[in-house]
Amino acid sequence: MERSTAEFLAHLADRRYAALTVRAYGEELLRLREFLAGRLGRPAKPADLTPDLLTAFAAARSLERTAARRPISARTLARTLAAVRCYLRYLERRGKVSASAGAGLPRVTLPSPLPSAHAVEPLNQLLDEIAAKIPAQDARGCRGLAAAELLYGSGLRVGELASLTRDRVDERRMLIRVLGKGSRERVVPVGQRALAALRRFWALAGGEPRPGDPLLRGRSGGVSARTLERDVQSLLARLGPNAATHPHALRHSFATHLLDAGANLRAVQELLGHQNLRTTQIYTHVTRRRLKEAYARAHPRA
Fold first, then answer.
1. Please, which pLDDT band fits residue 198 given cuts at 50, 70 and 90?
2. Hey, what's the torsion of the CAs at 131, 135, 139, 143, to 10 degrees?
3. What is the pLDDT of residue 301?
């Protein structure tokens, strides 16, 4: 199984799955191999992937606890099962397992919380204050500001931003060609403030990158999505103790603020790179909630 797992992960990388997804699937399949080896007393083979053993693995995984001794979340279990199902489909296409191998794997229903979006004024005021007050030689702070401006101004995912290269940004036309999930490319606008923040960072980081070089970089070349997350989180923490600091909140804010201002739902779908309109529609719930809150605050008969 170890060899087939390595081939499977290489297959995902060839199909341009996100690096974080490939790594996460690799970790889950390592857990599966270790579980099977413990049950069988030997290294597992693809032929050992029977419904009974896979069901037992799913049950054992659901009972595991985190380092903080809490039960693993439904989202973590769903990721485990998604990795196993994807691996099984890969093996089935190559005739190494039967189509019924994963029949006993449970389905996990995930909660659907509303996206966390920042209010317009505090977020824009924060970005303006950071741009005005950031120290002249603070390269990391300038990189964080550029990242935040791009995530909020163009609705990017952090992984998409980390993989962006210089040749994908057209400053003259103010457009970015983004390679998103499933290797789907979309074109999104980029604002003047984001471009100015990029220029400011490049001036501190050794000059404008060459066409194929990373748009944002660290000391040794490209910068990881995790590093960009930390850069942006340190900025968003200034919004207060209850503010959402994860960079994805900026993508949520991008979509919500567009819809609040009357943007067409399908246009927002295209900008976000969603395949299914239902994925984008969750932002309409946020907009409705905000309208209800405004009504409750302002109308004398609310």
1. very high
2. -20
3. 67
CA pair distance 236, 240, nearest whole angstrom:
8
| Helices (H), ranges, the chain | 2-14, 19-40, 51-62, 74-93, 120-133, 139-154, 158-163, 192-204, 225-236, 248-260, 265-272, 277-298
Q: What is the pLDDT of residue 112?
A: 66
The per-residue pLDDT for 220 is 78
The residue assigned the tokens 């997804």 is: 21
Question: How confident is the model at residue 302, as a pLDDT?
Answer: 65
d(CA 142, CA 148): 10
CA distances from 216 to 25, 80, 111, 255 (A): 27, 32, 34, 23
Collapsing DSSP states into helix, strand and coil, what is residue 41?
coil
Structure tokens at 22: 């490939």
pLDDT category at 108 given cuts 50, 70, 90 is confident
Q: Find out whether 69 and 24 touch, Cβ atoms under 8 Å.
A: no
Catalytic residues: 157, 181, 248, 251, 274, 283
Q: With beta carbons less than 8 A apart as the criterion, state whether 164 and 216 touch.
A: yes
The pLDDT confidence band at residue 104, using thresholds 50, 70 and 90, is confident
Give the integer Cα–Cα distance in Å for 169 and 161. 11
Beta bridge partners of 189: 175
In the Cβ-directed half-sphere of 113, how many Cα atoms lie within 13 Å?
6
Structure tokens belonging to residue 88: 């099984």
Closest-CA residue to 161 (of 173, 172, 149, 170): 149
Mean pLDDT score, 278-287? 81
